[in-house]
């Protein structure tokens, strides 16, 4: 079977990053700064907005075009970061190295299209806003509040896209989660096709309680205390949009919002979905305690 750490570049050329939420869990900072623009210190010592690290993660896997879903009022602030030069007085004070880096950001910005979500009606709805931009192609989906570190030669996104190429199926990145935190994430069960690597998904469930997870989501061969949670990245075939459209058109909501997980389960029933256990670590920066821990651990 193909070695995912050395697979050829993926044919997936587009990545989608939803960033249109209100960031309520990071209030009051998000009253004045978008959650995705909060800084972390990267391994190169630079203070980078979270969204930059996510964009760089996508580019590391050969992605050529990036769509970022934002609120209408936030388009200008994201454009100012990625697509506009610094004010002249700031540029003059930057070191030559940082002036070059400023140019790098604008070149990166040429790959980016900003997509507007007029109303914030859930993760699934945010993804659906990109239907026209995706244009019936497979695409990479990354969360707007996760950053990643690979333990392999390939980046985390590179691993997921390699699994997509290998299986010719939509792929959900997976991680091992303990039972005490599974209620905070999407959970998946299935049958290993390649031990501790490729899984045929048989069920998805959004934020299960521990009792439900033990009864319905345990994976054969794993310790009873461990489960497979969603890593925060997906390689999806465009048929997902038909399921999203159906749920939106029929106002099928979960906890008041249009969700992605229910549509992924419908896609699984229609054409199958594989899971890939990512050899790496994700950092959830969407809650204060996890953001603080990321500041210590990431760099």
Structural features, described:
It is a single chain. This protein is of the alpha/beta class and 299 residues long. The chain has one domain (14-297): Spore Coat Polysaccharide Biosynthesis Protein SpsA, Chain A, CATH 3.90.550.10. It is built from eleven helices and 13 strands. The protein has helices at residues 50-60, 75-83, 88-93, 96-109, 123-128, 131-134, 156-167, 210-216, 240-249, 261-271, 288-297, and strands spanning 14-18, 39-41, 47-49, 65-70, 112-116, 139-142, 146-150, 170-178, 186-194, 198-206, 226-236, 273-277, 280-284. A five-stranded mixed β-barrel has the order 8-11-9-10-12. Strand 2 and strand 3 (47-49) form a beta hairpin. Helix 9 packs across helix 10. The longest helix has 14 residues, at 96-109. It is globular, with a radius of gyration of 19 Å. The two termini are 34 Å apart. Residues 1-9 have low confidence and may be disordered. It holds the Pfam family NTP_transferase. It catalyses: alpha-D-glucose 1-phosphate + UTP + H(+) = UDP-alpha-D-glucose + diphosphate. Its EC number is 2.7.7.9. Residues 14-293 form the Nucleotidyl transferase domain. This is UTP--glucose-1-phosphate uridylyltransferase.
């Amino acid at each position: 079977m193909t070695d995912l750490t050395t697979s050829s570049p993926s044919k997936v050329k587009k990545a989608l990053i939803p960033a249109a939420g209100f960031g309520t869990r990071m209030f009051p900072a998000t009253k004045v700064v978008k959650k995705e623009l909060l800084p972390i210190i990267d391994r190169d010592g630079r203070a980078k907005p979270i969204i930059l690290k996510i964009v760089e993660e996508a580019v590391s896997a050969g992605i050529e075009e990036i769509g970022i879903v934002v609120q209408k009022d936030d388009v200008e602030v994201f454009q100012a970061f990625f697509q506009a030069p610094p004010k002249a007085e700031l540029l003059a004070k930057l070191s030559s190295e940082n002036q070059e880096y400023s140019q790098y950001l604008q070149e990166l910005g040429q790959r980016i299209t900003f997509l507007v979500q007029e109303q914030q009606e859930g993760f699934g709805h945010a993804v659906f806003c990109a239907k026209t931009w995706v244009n019936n192609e497979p695409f990479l989906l990354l969360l707007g509040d996760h950053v990643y570190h690979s333990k392999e030669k390939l980046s985390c996104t590179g691993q997921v896209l390699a699994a997509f190429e290998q299986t010719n199926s939509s792929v959900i990145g997976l991680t091992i989660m303990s039972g005490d935190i599974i209620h905070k994430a999407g959970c998946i069960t299935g049958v290993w096709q390649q031990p501790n690597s490729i899984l045929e998904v048989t069920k998805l469930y959004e934020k299960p309680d521990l009792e439900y997870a033990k009864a319905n989501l345990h994976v054969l061969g794993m310790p009873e205390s461990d489960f497979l949670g969603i890593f925060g990245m997906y390689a999806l075939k465009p048929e997902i949009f038909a399921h999203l459209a159906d749920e939106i058109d029929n106002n099928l909501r979960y906890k008041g919002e249009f969700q992605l997980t229910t549509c992924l389960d419908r896609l699984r029933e229609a054409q199958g979905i594989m899971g890939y256990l990512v050899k790496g670590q994700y950092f959830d920066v969407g809650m204060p305690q996890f953001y603080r821990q990321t500041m210590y651990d990431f760099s």
